[in-house]
Amino acid sequence: LAEYKIAVLAGDGIGPEIVEVGVAVLQAAARRFGFGLHFEEALAGGAAIDATGEPLPAPTLELCQASDAVFLGAVGGPRWDELPAHQRPEKALLGLRSGLGLFANLRPARILPQLVDASSLKREVVEGVDLLVVRELTGGIYFGNPRGIFPEKKQERRGVNTMSYSESEVERIGRVAFEAARKRRGQLCSVDKANVLEVSQLWREVMGKLAPEYPDVELTHMYVDNCAMQLIRWPRQFDTIVTGNLFGDILSDEAAMLTGSIGMLPSASLGSSGPGMYEPVHGSAPDIAGQDKANPIAQVLSAAMLLRFSLGEGAAADRIEQAVQDVLDQGYRTGDIATGGHQPIGCRAMGEQLLAALERTDGS
Ligand code: NAD
Ligand code: IPM
Ligand code: MN
């Protein structure tokens, strides 16, 4: 019997509510498909600051390094917003990403047919959308130096961040994206701001040099401002998008709305070896935290990605994704995806329906 160790970082806000559902779904899938999961919880984000004074205590990073995968809810919230950047809850995420070498962030945005009317865009625009944002996750302006708030003149300070990418950083995310595009519809759109930024000129050049190695993939380039518009105008033109850390952060939230709600979007963060980290694209949603209103589906779909990418349990992952479709077919909706005829249900009730659907599918 295969036995895997999963580090669970529930975090802040709605994190604990949705992670509870995600863990229950993973347990049910493990029972059903005959493998063992051993969960170990650790502190991260605001919860860790409150308990230890640090957003990412050393034992948390060590646990993650010694696990097969990391399952994270969300971190952050208004209570910690006044702290300096390096002490904020968000630093836990950034520290995990760099500490585990997770340079490739996969953010698939696929509209489920049941939700075409939940999007704020017209049905004919979002129907059939199925795209993947490959976001570089350990470089760019999030990590560049110099950074800080520096005194300049009397009574005037300057805030500084640096966007920088080395050729090898671009090449390795480029390879992940070409490989992903190859397994999808063979179209890769590299998004940059090469009309203004040198960092983007180099990015574009490196992507172009990789292209001949992937003759089955068609590489195109697009400026990020145009891409933001094209995602809303005609999202079906996109298959795989590859972009830097900041542009990928923004474009993936935008892509989320094509699927009906940001509460639907999962992600996987992968390195070249070691454990991957799986978390929803959304944040800790302080406005609905503690009210049993959160949509747990992004967390549950992240669990499916964990099974598929880190544990090689593809059949269990498929089953979880089917269970999501089943509960939507049955008409169950949390508030964020409820339209017209639906009476919204809570996070916990959605979790119970997902578990019931997991037990039921296959008729066995
Ligand atoms: P957010 O994604 O938390 O919330 C944006 C909006 O989407 C809110 O109205 C929220 O209620 C809604 N929403 C998000 N997830 C939902 C879900 N599962 N179900 C239903 N509605 C959902 O973004 P924000 O408000 O800008 O950020 C809040 C905090 O989260 C900040 O501290 C931010 O830094 C942090 N954050 C963390 C992560 C992460 O841990 N991965 C990601 C993004 C933001
Ligand atoms: C995300 C979040 C994070 C990011 C923050 C919370 C550090 O927005 O995972 O998309 O900007 O990467
Ligand atoms: Mn984000």
TrEMBL record:
<comment type="similarity">
    <text>Belongs to the isocitrate and isopropylmalate dehydrogenases family. LeuB type 1 subfamily.</text>
</comment>
<feature type="site" description="Important for catalysis">
    <location>
        <position position="193"/>
    </location>
</feature>
<dbReference type="GO" id="GO:0005829">
    <property type="term" value="C:cytosol"/>
</dbReference>
<keyword id="KW-0560">Oxidoreductase</keyword>
<feature type="binding site">
    <location>
        <position position="135"/>
    </location>
    <ligand>
        <name>substrate</name>
    </ligand>
</feature>
<keyword id="KW-0460">Magnesium</keyword>
<feature type="binding site">
    <location>
        <position position="97"/>
    </location>
    <ligand>
        <name>substrate</name>
    </ligand>
</feature>
<keyword id="KW-0963">Cytoplasm</keyword>
<dbReference type="GO" id="GO:0003862">
    <property type="term" value="F:3-isopropylmalate dehydrogenase activity"/>
</dbReference>
<dbReference type="InterPro" id="IPR004429">
    <property type="entry name" value="Isopropylmalate_DH"/>
</dbReference>
<dbReference type="GO" id="GO:0009098">
    <property type="term" value="P:L-leucine biosynthetic process"/>
</dbReference>
<comment type="pathway">
    <text>Amino-acid biosynthesis; L-leucine biosynthesis; L-leucine from 3-methyl-2-oxobutanoate: step 3/4.</text>
</comment>
<feature type="binding site">
    <location>
        <position position="225"/>
    </location>
    <ligand>
        <name>Mg(2+)</name>
    </ligand>
</feature>
<feature type="binding site">
    <location>
        <position position="253"/>
    </location>
    <ligand>
        <name>Mg(2+)</name>
    </ligand>
</feature>
<keyword id="KW-0520">NAD</keyword>
<keyword id="KW-0464">Manganese</keyword>
<dbReference type="InterPro" id="IPR019818">
    <property type="entry name" value="IsoCit/isopropylmalate_DH_CS"/>
</dbReference>
<keyword id="KW-0100">Branched-chain amino acid biosynthesis</keyword>
<protein>
    <recommendedName>
        <fullName>3-isopropylmalate dehydrogenase</fullName>
        <ecNumber>1.1.1.85</ecNumber>
    </recommendedName>
</protein>
<dbReference type="GO" id="GO:0051287">
    <property type="term" value="F:NAD binding"/>
</dbReference>
<comment type="subunit">
    <text>Homodimer.</text>
</comment>
<dbReference type="InterPro" id="IPR024084">
    <property type="entry name" value="IsoPropMal-DH-like_dom"/>
</dbReference>
<keyword id="KW-0028">Amino-acid biosynthesis</keyword>
<keyword id="KW-0432">Leucine biosynthesis</keyword>
<feature type="binding site">
    <location>
        <position position="107"/>
    </location>
    <ligand>
        <name>substrate</name>
    </ligand>
</feature>
<comment type="function">
    <text>Catalyzes the oxidation of 3-carboxy-2-hydroxy-4-methylpentanoate (3-isopropylmalate) to 3-carboxy-4-methyl-2-oxopentanoate. The product decarboxylates to 4-methyl-2 oxopentanoate.</text>
</comment>
<keyword id="KW-0479">Metal-binding</keyword>
<dbReference type="GO" id="GO:0000287">
    <property type="term" value="F:magnesium ion binding"/>
</dbReference>
<feature type="binding site">
    <location>
        <position position="249"/>
    </location>
    <ligand>
        <name>Mg(2+)</name>
    </ligand>
</feature>
<feature type="binding site">
    <location>
        <position position="225"/>
    </location>
    <ligand>
        <name>substrate</name>
    </ligand>
</feature>
<feature type="site" description="Important for catalysis">
    <location>
        <position position="142"/>
    </location>
</feature>
<dbReference type="Pfam" id="PF00180">
    <property type="entry name" value="Iso_dh"/>
</dbReference>
<feature type="binding site">
    <location>
        <begin position="77"/>
        <end position="90"/>
    </location>
    <ligand>
        <name>NAD(+)</name>
    </ligand>
</feature>
<feature type="domain" description="Isopropylmalate dehydrogenase-like">
    <location>
        <begin position="5"/>
        <end position="354"/>
    </location>
</feature>
<feature type="binding site">
    <location>
        <begin position="283"/>
        <end position="295"/>
    </location>
    <ligand>
        <name>NAD(+)</name>
    </ligand>
</feature>
